[in-house]
Amino acid sequence: MKTAGQRIEQMDRILEKTAWDATGYLNNVPRTTKFRHDAYYRVLAERQKVRTAQAASLGGVALVEEGCAK
Predict the structure, then answer these.
(1) Range of the domain at 31
(2) What dihedral angle (degrees, nearest 10) is formed by the CA atoms of 52, 57, 59, 61?
C-alpha cells in the first residue's frame, strides 16, 4: 500500500500530463480530449482529499511548511 506522500506524487505526475487538456479542451484546442480533461479534475479532487487527510494527521504542519516554501 502506498503512503500518502507517494499517492500525492503519483497524482502530481498525472496532473502534469493532463494539464494541457484541462485548460484546452473547453477552448477547442487541437489534440485535447474530454477523457484527459475529466481525468485532471477527478485526480485534482482526489489529491485535495489526500492532502487534507495528510495535513490532519500531521496537525496541519505539512501545508504550512509548503506554503512558506513557495
Answers:
(1) 4-69
(2) -70
Tens-digit pLDDT profile for residues 13-57: 999 999 999 999 999 999 999 999 999 999 999 999 999 998 888
Number of domains in the chain: 1
The terminus-to-terminus CA distance of the chain in angstroms comes to: 30
Torsion (CA) 7, 10, 12, 17 in degrees, nearest 10: -150
Q: What is the pLDDT of residue 59?
A: 76
Nearest of 35, 31, 39, 34 to residue 14 by alpha carbon = 39
What's the predicted TM-score (pTM) here? 0.76
Separation CA 24–CA 47 (nearest Å)? 21
Residue 21: other Cβ atoms inside 10 A:
20
